[in-house]
């Protein structure tokens, strides 16, 4: 039996701990905070309950795979979100994006004019071909340069991946309507990036959301972390909350354990769910993994988020997810990724307003999670989100901007709480509050993301800052990859490349004529 220490009880750490315990390892999990879940947080304010992390689940079968591999169904109730989102563009045009991709072209034609649906369909089919290339060999396996080189050697595959093209360039080539290009560019923020620098390969993101749908977990997405924690404990994982790992210890070039509270905790394997930059800059001894540390220093940080938790009087029935775009979408990213960043003057505003009785104190009110993209907390070279009065001033500005776009909730506010990138850094340890670690900028972005197997034997990474990236499905896949690399107890841990479990594979693109319902296990209902 191998002794495994998992550092961090975010979703990646919880999923990795559960998988490794199910493989027979002796697993201990240490989390610096007094609670679990990491960025998949929850807050209770004035009787309202808010998910403070992801608000939409895609690829729900990836979640069910974790539980299938660790003992049985999750018991979570997963419901389709339809429409997936309501968009209001800078000119006032409103679009509700259906859950069913077969209904999308008609919705686009009705909202944006004839021809918009056909343009979207061309993009959807192209992204489907791309998904066939990257779904299984890239997202569900360790980062492998040989796989990427094989793609580049086949002309047809190279054209689909198009490493020379950005999301912005692809949108301009395929989507004539500027509003549809604004919608498409939004998906760069799913990796915390600027759409003008994000590789076109990330066009698979909207494809996945539309092909497999958007889903909600009854009771809030935080329930995912709760049930993962329950599964870990049922499998015998020793869970230590409020237990900060001060260092990863190394001897003779290999991992030997961790230091907690000044005491050495021996381990054969360490799996780190902390941000990769925290691992390489703070937890490892100086001089260890120099190249990984240098690469991370060169990579740009992802964007952060400025959040308002609003408990409102009255009810405003409508889609759970709502987005208001500014007139100048590019200016938002100019502000965030500038040499001297600043809070966005005219931001995109995202609202999550789930109609879930479990999340509100009574039927006379509703909770709104309001998010705007923001630069990271960087008092020395950028924005100091702890600066006197800044959070209150910017919160007022966001609400005034929302009112100017036709939705004024200021006279309905019962409770208000503000969360800045500085708060996210304090609460989760994410440097600067960068939600996704590093931004996906440039054609080599996938290669710059830290691998799941570190250069130090016995040390592995999971979570949004490592391969394959951020967002719930990818974080869960990172845990699957890492567990596959380590292998079952009794094997020589970390000595083989490892293969992902065969129980469920990333599905191929569906036939255009219909939306098949069986390539993934059915989500719980």
From TrEMBL:
Q: Name one GO biological process term.
A: carotenoid biosynthetic process
Give the record's keywords alphabetically.
Carotenoid biosynthesis, Oxidoreductase
Indicate, by first and last residue, each region the UniProt record lists as having compositional bias (Low complexity). Answer: 495-507
Gene3D superfamilies recorded for this chain?
FAD/NAD(P)-binding domain (3.50.50.60)
Q: Which InterPro entries match?
A: Amino_oxidase (IPR002937), Carotenoid/retinoid_OxRdtase (IPR014105), FAD/NAD-bd_sf (IPR036188)
Q: Which Pfam family is one of this chain's hits?
A: Amino_oxidase
Task: Tell me its family.
Answer: Belongs to the carotenoid/retinoid oxidoreductase family.
Name-wise, this protein is Phytoene desaturase
**Organism of provenance:** Pseudonocardia halophobica
């Amino acid at each position: 039996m191998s002794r495994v220490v998992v550092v961090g009880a975010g979703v990646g750490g919880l999923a990795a701990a559960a998988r490794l315990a199910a493989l027979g390892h002796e697993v201990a999990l240490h989390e610096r905070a007094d609670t679990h879940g990491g960025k998949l947080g929850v807050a209770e304010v004035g009787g309202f309950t808010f998910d403070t992390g992801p608000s939409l689940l895609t690829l729900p079968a990836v979640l069910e795979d974790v539980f299938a591999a660790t003992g049985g169904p999750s018991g979570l109730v997963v419901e389709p979100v339809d429409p997936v989102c309501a968009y209001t563009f800078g000119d006032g045009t409103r679009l509700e994006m259906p859950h069913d991709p077969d209904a999308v072209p008609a919705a686009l034609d009705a909202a944006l004019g004839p021809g918009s649906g056909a343009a979207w369909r061309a993009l959807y089919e192209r992204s489907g071909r791309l998904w066939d290339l990257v779904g299984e060999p890239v997202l569900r396996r360790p980062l492998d340069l040989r796989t990427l080189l094989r793609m580049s050697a086949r002309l047809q595959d190279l054209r689909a991946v198009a490493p020379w093209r950005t999301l912005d360039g692809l949108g301009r080539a395929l989507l004539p309507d500027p509003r549809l290009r604004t919608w498409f560019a939004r998906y760069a923020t799913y990796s915390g990036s600027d759409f003008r620098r994000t590789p076109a390969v990330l066009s698979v993101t909207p494809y996945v959301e539309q092909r497999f749908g958007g889903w909600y977990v009854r009771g809030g997405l935080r329930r995912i972390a709760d049930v993962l924690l329950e599964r870990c404990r049922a499998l015998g994982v020793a869970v230590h909350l409020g237990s900060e790992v001060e260092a990863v210890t190394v001897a003779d070039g290999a991992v030997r354990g961790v230091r907690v509270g000044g005491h050495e905790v021996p381990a054969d394997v360490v799996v780190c769910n902390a941000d990769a930059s925290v691992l390489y800059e703070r937890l490892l001894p100086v001089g260890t993994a120099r190249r990984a540390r240098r690469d991370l220093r060169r990579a740009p940080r992802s964007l952060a988020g400025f959040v308002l938790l609003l408990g409102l009087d009255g009810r405003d029935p409508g889609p759970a997810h709502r987005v208001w775009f500014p007139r100048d979408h590019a200016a938002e990213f100019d502000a965030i990724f500038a040499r001297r960043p600043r809070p966005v003057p005219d931001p995109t505003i995202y609202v999550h307003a789930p109609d879930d009785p479990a999340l509100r104190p009574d039927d006379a009110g509703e909770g709104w999670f309001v998010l705007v993209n923001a630069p990271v907390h960087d008092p020395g070279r950028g924005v100091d989100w702890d600066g006197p009065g800044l959070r209150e001033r910017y919160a007022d500005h966001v609400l005034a901007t929302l009112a100017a776009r036709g939705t004024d909730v200021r006279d309905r506010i019962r409770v208000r709480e503000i969360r800045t990138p500085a708060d996210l850094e304090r609460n989760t340890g994410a440097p600067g509050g960068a939600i996704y670690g590093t931004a996906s900028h440039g054609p080599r972005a996938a290669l710059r993301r830290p691998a799941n197997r570190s250069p130090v034997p016995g040390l592995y990474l999971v979570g949004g800052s490592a391969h394959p990236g951020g967002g719930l499905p990818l974080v869960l896949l990172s845990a699957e990859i890492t567990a596959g690399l380590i292998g079952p107890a009794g094997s020589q841990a970390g000595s083989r490349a490892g293969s992902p479990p065969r129980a469920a594979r990333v599905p191929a693109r569906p036939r255009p004529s219909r939306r098949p319902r069986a390539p993934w296990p059915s989500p719980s209902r």
